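Minutes, project huddle
Topic: does the predicted pose make sense with WQD bound?
PN asked that the exact inputs be recorded in the minutes so nobody has to dig through chat later. Recorded below.
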Amino acid sequence: MRQNEYILVTGGAGYIGSHTVVELIEDGKTPVIVDDFRNADLKVLSGIEKIVGQSVICHQIDVCDFQAMHAVFEQYSFTGIIHFAAYKAVGESVEEPLKYFDNNLNSLLVCLSLAEEFNVNNFLFSSSCTVYGEPVNSPVVTEESPVLEANSPYGATKQMCERILSDLTKSGSDIRVLNLRYFNPIGAHSSSLIGELPSGEPSNLLPYVTQTAFGILDQLTVYGNNYNTIDGTCVRDYIHVSDLANAHVKGLDWLTQQTGTLNEVINVGTGQGSSVLEIIHTFENVSNIQLNWKFGARRLGDVEQIYADVTKAKKMLNWSAQRTMEDAVRDAWNWEQKRRNETTDNS
Ligand code: WQD
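Predicted holo structure (tokens), as shared on screen:
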């Protein structure tokens, strides 16, 4: 029996964090969630436990609370850290930049200080394609594509965190770093026991689509139809959240096999671009529902089109997305219906 491989998962009760916790447990590892549930629901824990059929370790702590985090590091001999805990709403970051810089930077700094103190040398960071800004020559970005001026304070915090990690590894620290740059995570676990739980009105496309279809929201507005794309609407690389979660397991395994210091960056997407209209049409086909939508003005800060070159993920991690965009849209819709019907049943 393999000795417990304790993995610290900060923000592990969040959307991507919870799906990653499932994948870690199914891979035989022991994740330790640290989350203060400011952006998550305690019900997520029971959802994870129903999926994996065992209890999950969770400490309800603010990751920025150094003392509380120090006690967690004293309790477990972590073999690795996956750092998700951060605010991630692009629009909100424009309105409240200090909140984003304070939380997103300090949570990382606390984790890194403790990783050094306790010699936890495998560090996986949740980064984002937002760091690329508006791609210049081609919508397909590789890890060597230029990191341009961030379009939002949220994107700026991701760039700053990558810089902190790069400078730390250059300083001779023993910490090995893997930055995973996510594209657009969508969908939910196929069991519909966990999924996306946007707080308030969603800003992301797919939860807005499913809430409109369910009748919670009145109408979806498609932000802009005069972009220089296949149908005039923005193009993104939509990846099933469970595929994204599995990339973390593969990334951690890869990190653990390395020696010496390193700082790597890997794009995590499907390598395919899909427009907003393609998402809407896919949803209508999958759900057999005519969605109520209209065209509206462009949204400030939106990138025209971006999707991933995923060669490096395949080569380095032997990982590629296995689920289709249809799978993700179907799982998102199943999750929306299940959680809403349960709410109605319990009310
Ligand atoms: C996708 C497309 C919108 C809502 C952001 C972050 C990224 C990651 C994912 C954290 C755009 C259009 C959306 C709506 C619409 N987050 N849209 N009507 O902005 O690509 O990425 O979320 O890691 O880092 O930057 O995702 O889902 O908000 O938008 O037309 O009601 O859908 O204009 O073209 P985005 P999104």
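Observations noted during the meeting:
- The chain has eleven helices and 15 strands.
- The longest strand covers residues 122-128.
No decisions taken; revisit at the next huddle.
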